[in-house]
Write a structure and sequence with these properties.
Radius of gyration: 54 Å
Distance between the termini: 108 Å
Number of domains: 4
Number of strands: 6
Strand content: under 5%
């Protein structure tokens, strides 16, 4: 075969071909079989003298001579480009390669799924031409091509592996959408049922009101009838009195007539008759007086039978009235309850409607987090491990940490912050500081060693000074500042790590060391209780034993909080209380210092309990954030919300809130001096939140609180 550096080739018109996704493999095989034939049709134009053309290094005004033999001596003499460089237009070989590539790309069917992969085929062929024609560079070019082919095959396998995951995500999305629609339909059905029940209750109320009106009208009729009967009886009484008077008068007249007509009367003694008449008149007067007295006393009295009948009727009416009043009161209360329920339902509906409008206004399409797999170092496997069990907000933090970590590792030096008063003592330096670029695992181990040394013996120096002295002891005086800057930048970036976050908060003064110490003591006590229950030393306890230990260790926690801890430990309603649990796993940490969900839930409940405690303190004080609170009011409020506080703990809280040593706090009896010591409520609450502030005893009873 002739040397390709001294030969010219000419293109033969390539046959058009159609590429499709189904025949990609067969087309690739056919192209490989035709590769050698196409090579023979492609030209190879090199610069005169056997060197590669330096186009476009020189001016484009000069051109390559044509119609001369490329290997003639005359040509060689004139082609010395080092002494007399020829201006070059595009080499002919380059133009032919570009024309061939352009035609091949035009022949491709870019409407199929495999169009991007087929688009690489013409470039592969061009590269093959270079490999075959330039013998000197063939091994290097072949290794480059093979490396790219292996990487493309690897990426192709990854894409195939991710296809089922994509289909699974689509299926899960559809299932979640169906569940949401089902829940909305169920809520709509419940709302309709409640509306129907409300209408039925309103109808019942209307019916009761109608019955009440009917009974009231009946009572009015009975009262009217009773008044008429009373008038009738009065009229009858008066008539009887008149009749009795007439009867007495007639009786007296008849007696007088009988005496006048009696023949024996004239024979009686007149004196005796006069005396008898006198006595009779006296008796008549006495009896008349008694009769009048009886009429006056008992003239309005009705017959006992009528009285008992009316009394019975009145009793029945009273019972009916009381029953109706009770029914009315019950219906009224139910009506008020329904009104309150209706108002609360309206408020909830308005709130849900407002939230829906806000969500519709502010909602954006959910991000496709799978795009991060190709960006995160470690590929899809590491991204899946980082993203497991996290919501979108947490995933954003993870992504920011990864991006920040990459930027942090690109820095070789940190700019010194100077010697200002606002700069922490361990960062006071002027000039560039070397970035040691440790791994996250190394930083976590270094922080854990610092905590161990800090807790091993009592340290009188401040925590920032101890931190810098620790670095000097570990790395030497010359390297301490570089490690201080490096560790500070790392713990400021990785906020998802519990160890780094707590160390950073203590280092910059946003949290006291006592919080970390208290948490560690709590965890040690809890682990000790579990070990005591594990008599066989197998590392296993039952769920029932775990519940008992949690209730004994945290007697102030609510039942819901104990339930949350049980669930994070692995308990569920389907699991029996005799199910065993490896309790040692609950307290393990990974290489980067990340705790298990059980420990994370304990810290989360600790912060929530502290927030609730301080909020209750604020409510008891009844002040705004900007108001000032005296030491006396703070002492009284702490005693009110937590009656079990002893004097030592109370003094510790007051010392923290007002930033006074315990020894300088005024006595409890000196109220005047306590009133003079004031601080803003917001500042006092922030200081208490920084320290290990927690409830000592049970809260007040409702009657005590009132």
């Amino acid at each position: 075969m002739a040397n390709p550096e001294t030969r010219y080739y000419s293109f033969s018109k390539p046959r058009p071909r159609t590429r499709s996704s189904g025949g990609t493999t067969e087309a690739r095989g056919i192209e490989k079989r035709k590769l050698s034939q196409k090579r023979r049709t492609l030209p190879l134009q090199l610069s005169i003298g056997g060197h590669l053309s330096p186009w476009p290094t020189y001016a484009s005004g000069q051109t390559i001579l044509h119609k001369r033999k490329p290997c003639s001596e005359d040509c060689r003499k004139r082609a010395n480009w080092q002494q007399q460089p020829l201006g070059t237009s595009k080499p002919r070989y380059l133009e032919q390669l570009e024309n061939y590539l352009r035609k091949e790309l035009l022949l491709l069917d870019l409407g199929t799924d495999s169009a991007q992969e087929l688009r690489l085929q013409p470039y592969r062929e061009i590269f093959e031409f270079f490999i075959e024609d330039f013998k000197t560079y063939k091994p290097l070019l072949s290794s480059i091509k093979n490396a790219y082919e292996v990487m493309l095959a690897h990426q192709r396998e990854k894409i195939r592996a991710l296809e089922p995951l994509k289909a699974k995500i689509v299926t899960m999305n559809e299932d979640c959408s169906e569940r949401i629609l089902a829940m909305r339909a169920e809520e709509k059905y419940e709302i309709s049922q409640l509306k129907k029940e409300k209408m039925n209750l309103l109808k019942l109320i209307d019916k009761k009101n109608e019955e009440k009106i009917s009974l009231q009208s009946e009572v009015a009729k009975l009262r009217k009838s009773l008044a008429e009967e009373y008038l009738r009886y009065l009229t009858e009484r008066d008539a009887r009195k008149i009749l009795i008077g007439d009867l007495n008068e007639l009786r007296y007249q008849r007696e007088d007539m009988s005496l006048a007509q009696s023949p024996g009367v004239w024979g009686e003694d007149p004196v005796k008759l006069t005396l008898a008449l006198k006595m009779t008149r006296q008796d008549l007067t006495r009896i008349q007086m008694e009769l009048n007295t009886m009429k006056a006393n008992f003239g309005d009295v009705v017959p006992r039978r009528d009285f008992e009948m009316l009394e019975k009727t009145n009793t029945d009416l009273q019972e009916q009235l009381e029953s109706l009043r009770a029914d009315y009161e019950e219906v009224r209360k139910e009506h008020e309850i329904l009104l309150q329920l209706h108002m609360s339902t309206l408020k909830e509906r308005d709130q849900f409607h407002f939230e829906l409008q806000e969500i519709q206004r502010t909602s954006t399409p959910r991000p496709d987090w799978t795009k991060c797999e190709s960006v995160i170092a470690g590929g899809p496997e590491r991204w899946f491990m980082l993203a497991e069990g996290k919501n979108s907000d947490q995933l954003v933090d993870v992504l920011l940490e990864e991006i920040g970590n990459a930027l942090l590792r690109e820095k070789d030096f940190f700019p010194g912050l100077g010697f200002g008063d606002s700069i922490p003592a361990f960062l006071r330096f002027d000039g560039p500081v070397e970035n040691k670029k440790p791994t996250k695992k190394e930083v976590v181990h270094l922080l854990e060693d610092a905590w161990k040394e800090r807790l091993a013996e009592e340290q009188k120096e401040s925590f920032p000074d101890f931190f810098f002295n620790f670095l000097e002891r570990r790395f030497g005086v010359n390297e301490a500042m570089a490690w201080a800057y490096t560790i500070f930048e790392n713990i400021k970036l990785f906020r998802s790590s519990e160890v780094m976050r707590q160390f950073y908060a203590v280092l910059i003064g946003k949290r006291k060391e006592s919080v970390y110490v208290s948490q560690k003591e709590t965890m040690s006590q809890l682990l000790k209780e579990m070990i005591n229950v594990d008599t066989q030393n197998e590392g296993l306890i039952t769920m029932e034993q775990l519940s008992t230990i949690l209730k004994n260790t945290f007697p102030l926690k609510k039942e819901e909080q104990i339930q949350e801890l049980m669930e994070t430990a692995g308990w569920s309603p389907d699991i029996s209380s005799t199910e065993v649990l490896n309790y040692r796993i609950l307290f393990t940490e990974d290489e980067e210092g990340q705790s298990e969900p059980f420990v994370q839930k304990l810290w989360e409940q600790y912060d929530n309990e502290k927030d609730s405690y301080l909020q209750e303190l604020k409510q008891d004080l009844g002040l705004d954030q900007t108001d000032e609170v005296s030491l006396l009011k703070m002492r009284v409020a702490l005693t009110n919300i937590d009656p079990s506080l002893d004097k030592q703990v109370l003094s510790t809280y007051l010392s923290q809130a007002f930033q006074l040593p315990v020894a300088e706090l005024p006595l409890e009896e000196d109220e005047k001096q306590q009133e003079e010591i004031v601080v803003k409520l917001e500042t006092a609450l922030d200081r208490l939140w920084m320290a290990d502030t927690k409830r000592v005893g049970p809260p007040r009873e409702p009657e005590q609180a009132s």
